[in-house]
Design a protein that fits this description.
The protein is mainly α. It folds into two domains: 9-135 and 176-191, no CATH class; 215-337, no CATH class. It contains 16 helices and two strands. The chain has helices spanning 9-30, 43-48, 51-61, 72-82, 86-93, 96-109, 115-132, 150-157, 189-202, 209-222, 225-243, 248-265, 276-291, 297-317, 320-337, 345-363, and strands spanning 137-142, 169-175. Strands 1-2 form a two-stranded antiparallel sheet. Helix 9 runs parallel beside helix 13 and helix 14 runs antiparallel to helix 15. Its main location: membrane. Residues 234-248 have a biased composition (Acidic residues). InterPro entries: Hyccin. One of its GO terms (biological process) is phosphatidylinositol phosphate biosynthetic process.
């Protein structure tokens, strides 16, 4: 006998009943603004995509007094992720870019304790450690470097000596096996933050656009002011060349954008150390923002600028791995920006006529 109630409805109601008290506790920190989701069918997902609340939380995380052991917002992020409610965990994951942005910058600029930030990163690290099960992250890359020729294939099939065959794929380790960690040491800081960024990347398709834009801005700041200024100078030269061909209305819009970029250029920031394990996690996220299926023009522009800034940083640091990886991402971004040329009908007709003439000459013999 069929009933009107869906079998998934009780589980959804149970999840909502568990998530609602956690969301209500956020109202004690943010005020009545957090109560705007109380009438939603899924308050946790509404909280994830609420831009007003997201901007408020990001601003609070950037305050000079944030990140301490008594920070109520960090405590809420920690307790919310520990609740094991999947939708609420996504809310916490969406703020990883802001947490990493503030935490890494303050670690090198001040000696104050950031126990609140570190507690959140440690719970994210522990969560990922359990998921990986003490196993390294390994990918298989197709081995297309050596392709045997027809002569080599014939020799291999003949009576000659047996030759060692090349493997079909090459294993590459992205991340080593994770060990339990209860404190954040300076030598493990890059690894712990990179694991949190890997968790962000694994859920990036569910992240709101504002969170991804925040991450791209973090990368621009992490690259350092010198690299950012160099890229901005190149961008301004390109914009000046385009402005000569555009209308007055478009020029006004570009002037407004330049003012915003000028303010961001003079933002005080610190040059954050970017070890390879952290750098590759950053590039994976930028690759999704730049080449992913999103239709946000602002996101793609921010991601492309961030990739160029990180490449300039890698060149200055003489980091060969980072230079190769970031340059590849920049070239892919250039390919996305370039329009695909259309094949002219005259070219197709000319090629077909030559083929028909060649075919006629062959059959006439």
């Amino acid at each position: 006998m069929f009933t009107d109630e869906s079998p998934t409805k009780p589980s959804l109601q149970h999840t909502v009943s568990r998530a609602q008290p956690v969301i209500d506790s956020l109202s004690l920190i943010l005020g009545p603004i957090a109560n705007s989701n109380e009438h939603s069918d899924n308050p946790a997902m509404s909280l994830l995509h609420n831009q007003t609340i997201s901007q408020d939380i990001m601003c609070r995380l950037r305050l000079a007094t944030s990140g301490s052991g008594t920070d109520d917002l960090c405590r809420w992020l920690y307790d919310t992720f520990q609740s094991n409610i999947a939708d609420l965990q996504l809310v916490v994951i969406s703020y990883i870019p802001t947490l990493a942005r503030v935490y890494l910058s303050r670690c090198i600029s001040s000696k104050e304790t950031l126990a609140g930030f570190e507690a959140v990163f440690l719970t994210l690290y522990s969560h990922e450690t359990v998921i990986r099960g003490a196993e390294p992250c390994i990918i298989r890359i197709p081995n297309n470097i050596h392709i045997p020729s027809a002569v080599e294939s014939g020799k291999a099939n003949g009576k000659g000596k047996a030759t060692a065959t090349e493997p079909d794929s090459i294993e590459a380790m992205i991340s080593p096996a994770l060990e339990p960690c209860n404190t954040v040491r300076a030598t493990k800081r890059g690894l712990i933050v990179s694991v949190a960024l890997d968790l962000y990347y694994n859920n990036i398709s569910l992240m709101p656009i504002c969170s991804k834009i925040e991450f791209c801005e973090c990368c621009i700041i992490w690259a350092g002011q010198d690299e950012f200024a160099g890229v901005e100078q190149l961008d301004e030269e390109e914009d000046n060349a385009k402005e000569e061909e555009e209308e007055n209305a478009q020029e006004k819009e570009e002037e407004v954008e330049k003012k915003k970029e000028h303010k961001q250029k003079h933002e005080k920031c610190n040059r954050v150390p970017l070890p390879w394990e952290l750098f590759q996690s950053v590039l994976r996220i930028l690759g999704h923002c730049l080449l992913g299926p999103m239709n946000s023009k602002e996101l793609k522009e921010k991601a492309f600028k961030a990739a160029k800034c990180l490449h300039a940083r890698a060149v200055r640091d003489f980091d060969s791995k980072a230079m190769l990886a970031s340059r590849s991402l920049v070239r892919l971004g250039d390919m996305v920006e370039e329009p695909v040329p259309e094949l002219q009908p005259s070219v197709i007709t000319g090629d077909l006529s030559e083929l028909e003439a060649l075919r006629a000459s062959i059959f006439s013999r």
